[in-house]
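Long-time lurker. I teach an intro course on protein structure, and each term I like to show students one example going from raw sequence to a predicted 3D structure in token notation. This year I'd like something fresh instead of my usual example. Would anyone be willing to generate the tokens for the chain below so I can use it in lecture? Attribution to the forum is fine with me.
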Amino acid sequence: MSAPATIVGLGVVDASGVRGSSGVCAAWDALGVDPLGSGRTYRALFGVAHPTFRRLDGGTRALLLATAATGLERVLSPEQRDRTALVVETERGSLETDLRFAATLDGDLVEGALFPFTLANTSLGEVALQHELRGPSLCLSIDAAERGASLAEALALLRDGEADFVLAGRVESLPEPRGDLDAALACVVVLLARPDVRMPAVVAWPGDACDVLDAPDVLDALAARLFAGR
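-- Reply from a regular --
Happy to contribute to a lecture. Here you go:
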């Protein structure tokens, strides 16, 4: 049975570092920075500057780094990026930034620069601007039982002709436990192409293609497949 889409890029950011199908593989300690880096981290990894990186919240940094690690800039032409959508799922959303911003409301100086990042979908806008992606953007709020919702939505966009390519994934950034949510730093993104677009796959779908969305934590399974033995 044919695959539901071709996986043409994959990127991961977690507590150990950044790695992706572009060939980037760097540990935070080797970079000499704490997880999610500093203002110089983007250039150190990808050879180009990101002028606002140091001012971004954790979830946005993670998503930007994971996206760049897919090699999207060299995989997709400018014309193809016109037809590229973004779909990201998250359990923790922008909770870290929400709490930081709320804390400033009790002081003499409100950190207005934080406010845009109290919306989880701001990170998608940053990715779209950085890589000039002009397709639809969707940010999905999920619980643990709904993991993989971003892939289901991405495949629907491809199937229905709403996009030719989709950057889909999950991002979680929360330094400390809050309520029922554990601390987490994890971002996995996959760059998908319509199955009729002739492009090489960087990794195959796990299991039977028609049952792929029933697999638990399929995003993590794809990352494990790609990086096994590296």
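Some talking points for your students: The two ends are 29 Å apart (CA to CA). The mean pLDDT is 89.
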